[in-house]
Design goal:
CATH architecture of the largest domain: 3-Layer(aba) Sandwich
Number of domains: 3
Strand order of the largest sheet: 9-16-15-14-13-10-11-12
Distance between the termini: 78 Å
Radius of gyration: 29 Å
Number of strands: 20
Strand content: 15-25%
């Protein structure tokens, strides 16, 4: 390593000699900045133009980003074996063409362009263009807002309030996780997840949801969505049939279709999915039996038994998405569908996104023996394993009883919010809408009693910093009724009444 002090820079510049395919490569750092220049000088002809073309290409391609400082001409010349005049002339030419800008006493920098440089587009004869377009055309109606687009009073479903998250306890568990990782040998971890965490999950869901499993049956995933993806990779081949609830969880339906499945929407009634309408050639049946997504009703025991028997008869796997049923407010707790399975046909999917935070991306699947090893191999080929840092932290969090404590505390908060919304729906909002009965989770569905312009209501609500979301995006084949999905996990309790007051006034103006 050679060190140079140069008048063009206020800080020490370090040049690290390197070579690529026998040609010199200039690598330099300025303070915290690290930039690698791949400048290949061939022969001794047209040296200035060679340097000019490669620097310009680096700027236009974005490899040399706006604001990046280039090395002083003397240092780059020494590294590449050129004269300083050659480098200086090249810098001057690029500066004249507005690619570079010189700052007295600081150095030479890549200029910030007034208009973005267009990227080269893929050619129309791309062999996979049709497949690429299929993915591009997928509509994602349930994307959550960014920090910049979040509304003040948001009834978004599937989200929790960050104010309820036990930051101090999680921070302590993360410190434990860092100590555990420091003792590891630095190898990749097991694709199925850390054994202590799998054991902790098995114990928790046996207690909370009646799931019958051991640690060996559990696969830790990056959220429930990856669990669904892995199961689909193993079960689905192009053209095969997958039955889903209609209305139902849209990302699951889109995922199965993206894997090449023929997705068939099966209507639901007050007891859940109508089993008689499930196609006999279905390879998989996706259901949310404990808290139907999005309508909210639980599947009856008789309907569950009929579903299990049909899946066994036609050779289908039931994918049970038990996404938020740890929060139950009325009646006797209902165990999971998996707890009733005597045929070995239920793949149980759970998540900590609803009990903790969606950003943690921690979920799991409890799988029948017939497909367990295949899913573990699919997991390894997909991303090798879920990050071990949050796995160790969650192991500690569950082991110390902090998860159950957190669920109990949130249960009281969500129950209060739910009661407040139901009181308003039964009171001053009753002329316009009514709730579909639901006993679990932290969202409910409401249907309108009068015809109205739903898009206009949602748009007007957004101008008042209120987030309302229609049910229409959850329907595929079944005709959709006018309604909303009201989530009460993310909205603060004190914001519910002012938000619903505003909704009432908007309904008066729009629907009369």
């Amino acid at each position: 390593m050679r060190e140079f002090a140069d008048g063009e820079l206020a800080e020490t510049v370090r040049i690290y000699p390197s070579f690529t395919r026998g040609y010199p490569v200039a690598v330099y750092t300025v303070g915290e900045l690290f930039v690698e220049l791949h400048i290949v000088i061939q022969g001794r002809k047209d040296l200035a133009n060679q340097l000019y073309e490669q620097l310009r290409e680096g700027i236009e391609s974005g490899r040399l980003a706006a604001g990046v400082q280039l090395p002083p001409s003397r240092l780059l010349a020494a590294q590449l074996g050129l004269s300083r005049k050659t480098v200086s002339d090249t810098y001057s030419r690029l500066t004249y063409e507005n690619f570079l800008v010189g700052k007295i006493g600081s150095g030479t920098f890549v200029n910030t362009p007034n208009t973005p440089i267009p990227r080269q587009q893929a050619t129309a004869d791309l062999a996979s263009l049709e497949r690429v377009k299929q993915w591009q055309d997928i509509s994602l109606p349930l994307r959550h807002p960014t920090r910049q687009t979040t509304l003040r009073r948001d009834f978004i479903g599937g989200a929790t309030a960050k104010t309820q998250f036990p930051h101090d306890e999680w921070r302590r568990c993360t410190q434990f996780a860092l100590r555990q990782m420091s003792q590891a040998r630095g190898f990749y971890s097991q694709p199925e997840g850390l054994t202590p965490l799998r054991g902790a999950i098995a114990g928790h869901i046996a207690f909370a949801r009646g799931v019958k499993c051991t640690a060996d049956d559990v696969v830790v995933c990056n959220g429930a969505q990856q669990a669904l993806d892995l199961i689909a990779r193993v079960l689905i081949e192009p053209g095969c049939t997958v039955a889903v609830e209609d209305p139902g969880y849209t990302p699951a339906r889109l995922l199965f279709a993206a894997q090449g499945a023929r997705v068939v929407g099966v209507p639901v009634d007050g007891e859940g999915i109508i089993v008689e309408q499930i196609p006999d050639n279905a390879h998989a049946i996706y259901v949310t039996p404990s808290h139907q997504m999005p309508l909210g009703m639980p599947m009856s025991v008789a309907r569950r038994q009929a579903l299990l028997e049909k899946a066994s008869r036609i050779g289908a796997i039931i994918i049970e998405d038990d996404y938020d049923s740890e929060f139950r407010y009325e009646g006797r707790p209902t165990d999971s569908l998996q707890s009733m399975d005597r045929f070995g046909v239920v793949a149980y999917v759970g998540t900590f996104s609803k009990t903790l935070l969606p950003e943690l991306r921690l979920g799991y699947a409890v799988l029948p023996e017939v497909m367990l090893e295949a899913v573990i191999k699919a997991k390894q080929l997909t991303d090798w394993h879920t990050s071990t840092l949050p796995q160790w932290a969650l192991t500690k969090f569950i082991g110390e009883g902090l998860l159950n404590k957190h669920i109990r505390r949130c249960h009281g908060i969500y129950a209060g919010r739910r009661d407040r919304i139901l009181t308003r729906l039964a009171g001053d909002l009753a002329p316009w809408m009514q709730a579909i009965p639901s006993t679990a989770g932290f969202h409910m569905a409401v249907m309108f009693n009068v015809p109205l312009d739903l898009d206009r209501l949602i748009e007007r609500a957004r101008t008042e910093e209120i987030g309302l979301y229609p049910l229409t995006g959850f329907y595929a084949d079944t005709p959709a009724g006018d309604g909303l999905i009201l989530g009460f996990g993310a909205i603060e309790t004190l914001d519910i009444d002012p938000a619903l007051d505003c909704v009432r006034e908007l309904l008066k103006a729009i629907a009369g």
